[in-house]
Amino acid sequence: MSALTLEGLSKRFGSHSAVDGVDLSVAEGEFVSLLGPSGCGKTTTLQMIAGFVEPSAGRILLGGTDLAGVSPSRRGLGIVFQSYALFPHMTVAENVAFGLEMRRVGRSERDRRVRETLALVGLSGFEHRFPRRMSGGQQQRVALARALVIEPSVLLLDEPLSNLDAKLREEMQIELRQIQRRLGTTTVLVTHDQGEAMALSDRVVVMNAGRVEQIAPPHEAYERPATAFVASFLGKTNLLRGMVERRAEGSVFTVGGSDVATVEAPPGPCVAVVRPERIALTAPEEGLRGTVAARVFQGSHWMLHIDTQAGPVLVIRQNTGGAVPGEGEAVGLVWAEADMALRSEVAA
Amino acid sequence: MSIAARRQAAAPWLLVGPALLLFVGVVLVPIAMTVLLSFHRWGQFTGIEPVFVLDNWIEVAEDPYFSEMFLRTFRISVIVTAAAVLLGAPEAYVLHRMRSPWKGIFLLIVLGPLLISVVARTLGWALLFGGETALVNLALLRLGVISEPLRFMFTETGVIIALTHVLVPFMVLSVWAALQRIDPRVDDAAVSLGASRVTVLWRIVLPQAVPGILGGAIIVFALAASAFATPAIIGGRRLKVASTLAYDEFLNTLNWPLGAAVAVLLLIALAAIIIGANRIVERRFAQVFE
């Protein structure tokens, strides 16, 4: 049985539909991310699960029970807010103990669980600090400990890492994942950061304009995006308009009159989705021809912006120490059929 | 030092100069003169003698008449402050929770009286308390709250009610400002952890509003202790407080040195109480709120 189920969940504000018929089933112990640009309805969805926003239609089932009419204080969910929302007038230990106090857990057990949870998030020894005297990362950990100590049936994370700097964010991602694995807490994360969603989740739910575009494991969503929106939102990508032509030796995908890859597809106009790291550089007279417009060094890799007959194309080259074409040089671009997703264009 | 550097060093002094001169001229010099005046001698026939004696201070310290006045001022101020907290803090919270158009309208209603002169507002209370109609007593009698008319004019009760009404907006403003700084998500966090509405109010909202309540209390206390118009109109000659006492010494008895001693004592007592209270507040909340 799934831990959390959303059935046709919708929220309308006046005539505007913020969330439009979201169906999702989260398994016990699973880590699921709601991913999308701001205003896609992911936060509203989380607010409805938490009980702060009343759904306009649809159901939320927690372990099989309908949550309709259940007040947020009785749902037993752990929530970590973007602003941390710590109680500024309480010490770290008092913050973490608050949920246990509300559950009338005895003092000795309360102290033990606060201590254990603070140790889990690496904050032993900070019990008597006030939140204002702590860094953003430490406050984040307190908020996590406060949500975890009540042993919630589902942990809801609302953009929990977006206020941290890049280096700290990466560390916290790894730690969050480890803690979640160790405790096996069913977790729903809301984020606009595709890297974060892919790094942390078992499955991502890509949302756009209130609707679910795709629900899939991160790798699958990246490799086989269901829609053009998913393709462009998850990582960098190239969308190339071309033609599949039938030749004597088989079908060939052509862009701007040049042969790029042999394919098995019905002839006609097509859009190809190709990830920049899958494009190979070859001699200027082969494949899709272009010139390097800009070359950007990123440490572990180079980013090449290439002007072609079919428009600008982004190519990523791993920095293996080999030669990389300079700006203004002519190059040819090729890739294998397996490296692109082809969609035939209807009446293009 | 080069000329340029010297000019640069002079610039801040030139910039604050006019304001500093004004402050010295209209605040520090009169206070210094009042302090000096309190050490002069006054005689029925001789008038003010510019000598340095402690007579006025000894009189203020020894005559129980003065200690009664100061005690009354202190008592009224404490009760007015407490009443302002009890009325103003919930009022500010209700305002804080209101939705958009109503919030602005009611804030205007709460703060509107500040636009009207204290004298006009106090005279309004005088009409309600006394006069031909004595509406307050009439209402209380009709409602059956009291069986005999109460005396409001020239009593501490009357002064306290009128002063509280005059000063409550300051408390509302101060608490409201503190509530505005609270992250609304903090309430949600407490609710998600299982807290009821009442628990959130008591354990989460109130402690965060405490700095605002204490700040408002200091303002209200200071204004109540130094208030003149309200005690003068409601209390009149019969019920004097420190400020009306100083006024009477200056303008009725014409004993300026004694009036000066009363005024200076009021200033010192107020400054001591406010600075002391502020210290305690700062020490208590330095860790929590910055």
Question: Could you provide a short overview of the structure?
Answer:
The complex is a heterodimer of chains A (348) and B (290). By secondary structure, chain A is α+β, with helices and mostly antiparallel strands.
- Count of alpha/pi helices of chain A: 8
Number of domains of chain A: 2
Strand order of the largest sheet of chain B: 1-2
Report the C-alpha radius of gyration of chain A, rounded. 25 Å
Helix and strand content put the structural class of chain A at alpha+beta
CATH topology of the largest domain in chain A: Rossmann fold
The top-level CATH class of chain B is Mainly Alpha
CATH architecture of chain B: Orthogonal Bundle
Query: What sort of overall outline of chain A do the alpha carbons produce when their principal axes are compared?
Result: elongated
| Largest sheet features of chain A | 6 strands, mixed
Pick out the low-confidence regions of chain A: none
Largest interface: A-B, 29 and 22 residues
Shape of chain B: globular
- How large is the share of residues in beta strands of chain B? under 5%
Oligomer: heterodimer
Explain what this protein looks like in three dimensions.
The complex is a heterodimer of chains A (348) and B (290). Chain A is of the alpha+beta class. Chain A is 24% helix and 37% strand. Chain A has helices at residues 42-50, 92-102, 107-120, 136-148, 166-183, 194-200, 218-223, 228-233, and strands at residues 4-13, 16-26, 31-35, 57-62, 65-66, 78-80, 154-158, 186-191, 203-208, 211-216, 238-247, 250-255, 258-263, 268-274, 280-282, 288-297, 301-308, 311-318, 330-334, 340-344. Chain A has a six-stranded mixed β-sheet, sandwiched between helices. Chain A is elongated, with a radius of gyration of 25 Å. The two termini of chain A are 45 Å apart. In chain B, helix 1 (3-37) crosses helix 12 (256-285), helix 3 (64-97) packs across helix 7 (156-180) and helix 8 runs antiparallel to helix 9. Chain B is 76% helix and 2% strand. Chain B has a single domain, classed as MetI-like (MetI-like fold), CATH 1.10.3720.10. Chain B contains twelve helices and two strands; from the N terminus they run H-E-E-H-H-H-H-H-H-H-H-H-H-H. The model of chain B has no long low-confidence stretch (mean pLDDT 89). The two termini of chain B are 40 Å apart. Chains A and B meet through helix 2 of A and helix 8 and helix 9 of B.
